[in-house]
What does this fold into?
Amino acid sequence: MDSAHATIEELKLKITQASLPQEISEKLLNLLKFPGSGVELEKIITYINFVVGLPFNKSSEDILDISRTKQILDKNHYGLQTVKDRILEYLSVLILHKQKGQVNDFHAPILALIGLVGTGKTSLAGSIAESLGRPVVRIPFGGLGNPATLRGQAKSLIDAEPGQIIKAVSLSKVSNPVILLDEIDRVAVEHRTDLMGVLVELLDPSQNRSFVDHYLDFPFDLSQVLFIATANNTSNIATAVMDRLEPIQMPSYSDEEKLIIGKQYLLPRAMEEAGLDSGLLTIDEGVWPQIIRPLGFDGGIRSFQRTLQGICRKVARRVVEGNIGTCRLTADNLGEYIS
It folds into this structure.
């Protein structure tokens, strides 16, 4: 038995042993009746392996616990009470539908977190996924041009591959992941109409039950996926897309809020990332305003976070070089740690 024939027999076995819908199994087996050779056979092998790996009948069990969700949101995010309340309301509705045995018929609202850079949109989506016990996959839309990036390319084309949506489902290994559609307002202007059309199909419960990726060339059910969108503003989002979203405005942070976030969340996290033991770095109260606003007002916390991370890296270097035991940032030495 030559290697090509052996490979085909292995694929047939893999198909029959996989938990695939019958029509998909038949489609894949038909491809192996006249598989060709060389590049054509390699394409078929790649295609079948990808399809067999899709989570047709695999889903994660949702953790529907209001108290746990609240704890996770409070642990990961300071303030944002309106946003947190909206998430808890969504979870409450999901719990009631599950109690009635209607969870598979319940279509989660498409939350759209709208706000300035650094206001916590992306990390909040991660907290929602964590609270539900679902994997989360991020798809960045910034600068996205070709709609085929989302919908895939026909497998007959050279260098054909699945779109980002189906790749995200495959990567998550479940049929109900959280998929973060990040910065949907920042797609390339010349392709905005086409990309918004794909978004409408993704976000509409009546259409996403049979989403067709051009690479797969058969409908795939995305109805159990929890999509979360983010955007800096809504002016570049098509009306048809906005009609399918529930926008939640992310507030800017005041200096007082940033001070609490810095002390309770960002600094401990930055120290841990830098390998610094707790208590090794202290910051004088009078120094915090200069760390919070190194370049003037910023409604988000991203630049603030980067500043703290930079400080911690410098402290880490000095510790390794043996120059300090513990470090205290004061008005006199701050310039040595902020560049």
User: Anything to note?
Assistant: The chain has three domains: 3-52, 66-249, 255-336. Residues 255-274 form the longest helix (20 residues). The chain has a mean pLDDT of 88. Strands lie at 111-114, 136-140, 178-182, 211-212, 219-220, 226-231, 246-249, 281-283, 327-329.
